[in-house]
Write a structure and sequence with these properties.
alpha/beta; elongated; five-stranded mixed beta sheet; about 30% helix; about 20% strand; seven-stranded parallel beta sheet
């Protein structure tokens, strides 16, 4: 049941403390949001619930009712339609948003079984990052690492592009020292580069069945020198068409697919 029939139950002030908290979360201001992350829309809400995320507050426009899937323990606040529209980021809001506690993972979370790790090194496009996280889940990667300078996985565009995969795939900020640590644990570092760079080999000729971390560089400048120096091998995706390079998310997705195919074919029948 919605409580919007009662005028006193509907928040109508943009200066309301909870509205300010939600606005801060959408802006990625962790200190002002209390470390909470904002999500918007039915799809992301359903994915968060399905993934066992800890929801703190649901915000609903006065034209909607509370979905039955939301646990009774979660605080629900109704907002005037104009207040709701002023807070969220989409042009055509669905009338529902939420604050949740983002999962926190450590480096060991991505090193399980035969690790297949994506390293997003300085990616700036949130759509690329979200797509990469989605592909990481789809093709069985054990996690995604982010070097400093990479856009946040909780950026609103990244969240939407991940389609909920960010709730289930371990994402961890990693330093150069952490990447060196991967090598010390027997994980090979594969750098995705252009065909004319270094001693490059086509992805299908690389052995991606062994523990592997795939480095995906910045959309414009590629991989930094200190990361290239860590690489055990340089891989590329042969393109017969007349393009200089692939989109970072597409390149990473194709490499993950290649790794998944190699690993599947290695499994006993």
């Amino acid at each position: 049941m919605a409580f919007s029939d009662s005028a006193s139950a509907v928040i109508t002030s943009r200066s309301n403390a909870r509205i300010k908290q939600l606005r801060a979360a959408f802006a990625g201001q962790a200190r002002l949001s209390g470390g909470l992350v904002a999500i918007e829309g039915d799809n992301l809400l359903n994915e968060a619930l399905r993934s066992g995320m800890v929801l703190k507050t649901i915000f609903i426009s006065e034209r909607r009712e509370l979905p039955r899937s939301v646990p009774k323990s979660v605080e629900a606040l109704w907002l005037a339609n104009d207040i709701f529209a002023s807070v969220v980021e989409t042009q055509s809001p669905q009338g529902i948003a939420a604050l949740l506690v983002p999962p926190v993972h450590k480096l060991d979370a991505v090193i399980s079984g035969t690790p297949l790790i994506v390293v997003a090194a300085g990616l700036q496009d949130p759509g690329n990052l979200g797509t990469l996280i989605r592909s990481a889940e789809a093709f069985g990667a054990t996690g995604v690492l982010f070097t400093p300078g990479t856009v946040s996985a909780w950026n609103q565009k990244a969240l939407r592009a991940s389609a909920g995969s960010v709730f289930r795939t371990p994402v961890v900020v990693a330093t150069l020292e952490d990447l060196v640590n991967l090598k010390s644990r027997g994980i090979q570092i594969a750098a995705a580069v252009a065909e004319d760079a270094y001693k490059v080999i086509p992805a299908h000729e690389a052995d991606l069945t062994q523990p592997t971390a795939i480095l995906i560089g910045n959309e414009g400048s590629g991989l930094a020198d200190e990361l290239l120096e860590l690489a055990d091998l340089f891989v590329t995706i042969p393109c017969p068409g007349r393009v200089e390079s692939l989109n970072a998310a597409i390149a990473g997705s194709l490499l993950l697919y290649e790794a998944a195919q190699q690993r599947a074919s290695k499994q006993p029948a």
